[in-house]
Design a protein that fits this description.
heterodimer, A: alpha/beta, Rossmann fold, three-stranded antiparallel sheet, 10 helices, B: mainly alpha, 12 helices
Chain lengths: ~260, ~250
């Protein structure tokens, strides 16, 4: 379903993603793990047409997302790391806009919207402005919205960030359910190793832009000789803490870029 | 087309839901209209130019449309901050349509604000001279709204965050307003000021409104229309281009 070959993305002298190759089969739940700043989000952005790769090739359901942007976009849904809802609109209106942008016919749109809002337990509050929702409810709405146009692939970029264990559990239960009933391929990133262990069929670990391991959770544990995925992850990526904050030189650069516009 | 419509509708809903902002945004035009209108009135009268309230009302309407349309374009920055922009950018819709929906929505909101201020002007005592040409004022409002919504989108697409907002306000929006002849007549100005006012697109918008509402004009209503339409077309192309280049 997803084929990635020798994918590279550089920002100036910094290589965010360095020669990454992997495949995700149809109907699979694939977890993409790595420390902060390892290149997870950059990879997702390239897969979802938001960034142009420096080199390498991507295929989504047989399409090159760079050449056939709109065709590829119809085939995936995405839940971003940070929220992307319109807080001034209601839950139902957010779904409606999404449905129209994805060309879902009106009848189907209404019907699926109702099904999904019910499934994610938001139907009762569909008429309320989203800014009044709790973090968990917003997350659920984003995921429900991602499913609205029956995508073949769903990208989830740290969907459980900042959620309590109840919401996290519920969320993964829903994702698994839709994965099973609609055969949706799921590509996710998370920092919670236990979640990846429980949910994912296969895992890839990325560090400093390079893939360091790939396989089933079991295989990765065996490969490193560790009992839990968390230990295996630490064995693969080391235990130093990654510095993600920008130095003053970086901030100056960002300020300059603001005026050159567009590109980051 | 439905994408353009739904994004236009979104702007409408957001506008109608923010009643506090609608009222708040009337504050500034009211100040200009009432304080300057009545405060400078006697001086203006003595200089032999007639009623200042009559003169400044089209300027205040133009100012309202200018601010409202630029801000709605810069609303892109809020959408970037709050994330909704990404939702529209990954949708299987050409960017041109997304930009068009936003710009039209912003322009419509600006025209609605302009009409609201027009009513305030009428209440304050403004009286159009030629009733027959009053509807044409709406045409100029629309032209102003399109020009500056497109400009707002072009700027909003080029900035990464809100830091540049003050800069745009002080070095672009305020000069556009002050150099437009909204507050003073364009004839008999010092050379430098005359040149500066003649390259400000808003000058033509406000001049156009004065010509249809008051029957006085500096450039001529035809020139006004042509200049606004041309600048609008160029800015729409620039805005669409900048918007298509957004990477997140």
């Amino acid at each position: 379903m997803i084929h990635v070959r020798n994918l590279v993305k550089t920002f100036g002298s910094f290589t965010a993603v360095n020669d990454v190759s992997f495949d995700v089969a149809e109907g699979e739940i694939f977890a993409f793990l790595g420390p902060n700043g390892a290149g997870k989000t950059t990879t997702i952005k390239m897969l979802t047409t938001l960034l142009t790769p420096t080199s390498g090739s991507i295929e989504l359901d047989g399409l090159d997302p760079q050449k056939k942007q709109n065709e590829a976009r119809k085939r995936f849904g995405i839940v971003f790391q940070d929220p992307s809802l319109d807080g001034d609109l209601s839950a139902a209106e957010n779904m409606e806009i999404h449905g129209i942008l994805y060309h879902v016919p009106r009848k189907l749109r209404r019907q699926r919207s109702e099904e999904l809002l019910k499934l994610f337990e938001l139907w009762e509050r569909r008429g309320e402005q989203v800014k009044k929702f709790s973090g968990g409810m917003k997350r659920r709405l984003e995921i429900a919205r991602g499913f609205l146009h029956t995508p073949k692939i769903l990208f989830l970029d740290e969907p459980t960030l900042g959620l309590d264990p109840q919401s996290r559990n519920q969320l993964w239960t829903h994702v698994k359910k839709v994965n099973e009933t609609e055969r949706v391929t799921v590509f996710l990133t998370t920092h919670y190793m236990d979640e990846a262990d429980r949910v994912a069929h296969r895992i890839a670990v990325i560090d400093h832009g390079k893939l360091v391991a790939q396989g089933t959770p079991q295989a990765i544990k065996e490969q490193t000789g560790m009992a839990s995925l968390e230990e295996a992850f630490l064995a693969l990526t080391g235990s130093t803490i990654r510095d993600e904050s920008a130095g003053s030189a970086d901030q100056m650069r960002q300020f300059a870029q603001m005026w050159r516009g567009g590109k980051r | 087309m439905s994408a353009i419509y739904i994004l236009w509708l979104r702007e409408m809903k957001r506008y109608l839901r923010s009643r506090v902002q609608v009222v708040a945004s009337l504050g500034q035009p009211m100040l200009y209209l009432l304080v300057l209108g009545f405060g400078l009135g006697p001086v203006f009268q003595r200089a032999g130019n007639g009623s200042y309230l009559q003169f400044v009302a089209p300027g205040v309407i133009g100012m309202t449309v200018l601010f409202s349309s630029i801000f709605s374009g810069l609303g892109l920055l809020f959408d970037r901050q709050f994330g909704f922009l990404k939702e529209t950018l990954v949708a299987p819709v050409p960017r041109l349509q997304i930009m068009a929906g936003r710009t039209l929505g912003g322009a419509t909101v600006a025209v609605m604000q302009g009409l609201l201020v027009s009513v305030v002007c009428l209440i304050a005592g403004f009286r159009p001279v030629h009733l027959a040409t009053v509807p044409l004022a709406l045409v100029f409002m629309i032209l102003i709204a399109v020009v500056f919504s497109a400009l707002g989108v072009a700027i909003g697409s080029s900035l990464q965050d809100m830091q540049g907002f003050q800069l745009i306000m002080n070095f672009m929006v305020m000069p556009i307003f002050f150099l437009s002849g909204a507050l003073f007549p364009l004839s008999g100005l010092p050379k430098v000021l005359a040149v500066a006012t003649s390259i400000d697109p808003l000058s033509y918008g406000i001049d156009g409104m004065r010509s249809v509402l008051l029957g006085v004009t500096h450039f001529g209503a035809f020139t006004d229309t042509v200049v606004l339409a041309a600048v609008g077309a160029v800015l729409l192309v620039v805005g669409a281009h900048r918007f298509s280049k957004i990477q997140i």
